[in-house]
Amino acid sequence: MIRLDGLARTFAGPPPRPLFASVSLDVARGEIVAIVGESGSGKSTLLNLIAGLDVPDAGAVVVDGVTLSALDDDGRTRFRRERIGFVFQAFHVLPYLPVGANVALPLALNGVRDAAADARVAELLDAVGLGDRAASPPRELSGGELQRVAIARALVHAPAIVLADEPTGNLDPRTAATIVALLRDTVKRRQATAVIVTHSRAAAAAADRVLELRPDGLVGI
């Protein structure tokens, strides 16, 4: 489902700073891969490359059989909207939409606005412990609650690929365990594919493989 072939990326600076080179990886359908590494090693950048939010200086990204560099900006946007669920470290919850509408956004962008969509939003909000907050404005939520909104939104349209950047970083241990179980269950049940960047041992332990991002590539640990 995901193939990375010789990726290289340099931080523009100033001064320019190489992040990584020769990153290659194959991730199978139904597999969960956790990526760990030192702060500043480029883990978030690597996720952005997989999502087509950034382009590599060298190498190729192939996701679900599609070479992302062969798509223009609009094509990559459509691809993400239809096939990828992304949990951003900074949440990116829209402040002018209530919680339920934030979670429903991927469905709405894909033209799904029916009773089944409403039921799916309610199901995901219940799963992340926010079933009673659908009408709440984001400003009334804590950081941990916003993190859970972002996770529900990433999963609501049943994407083939889930990318998560520190999905448990703002959560207490008990809630984090619930979210990790939800991510794993969703991926396995739907035979999706997930790449998770994390500093959490518990989140990494839920993955099928744990890899460390180093300047010269990914190394299994």
List the quaternary state of the chains.
single chain
* Sequence of strands across the biggest β-sheet: 6-7-8-3-9-10
CATH superfamily heading: P-loop containing nucleotide triphosphate hydrolases
For the termini, the CA-CA separation is 22 Å
Strand content: 25-35%
Question: What about the largest sheet?
Answer: 6 strands, mixed
**Low-pLDDT segments, ≥5 res:** none
Radius of gyration: 17 Å
Q: Quick one: CATH class?
A: Alpha Beta
Structural class of the helices, strands and pairings?
A: alpha/beta
Helix count?
Answer: 7
CATH topology name, in short, is: Rossmann fold
Q: Please count the beta strands (DSSP E, at least 2 residues each).
A: 10
Q: Secondary-structure element sequence?
A: EEEHEEHEHHHEHEHEE
* Mean pLDDT across residues: 94
Shape: globular
Architecture in CATH? 3-Layer(aba) Sandwich
Share of helical residues: 25-40%
How many discrete domains?
Answer: 1
Structure explained in plain terms:
By secondary structure, this protein is of the alpha/beta class. The protein has one domain: 3-Layer(aba) Sandwich (Rossmann fold), CATH 3.40.50. 36% of the residues lie in helices and 26% in strands. It is built from seven helices and ten strands. The strands form two sheets. Strands 6-7-8-3-9-10 form a six-stranded mixed sheet. β1 and β2 form a beta hairpin. α3 crosses α4 and α3 packs parallel to α5. The chain is globular and about 45 Å long. It starts with a strand and ends with a strand.
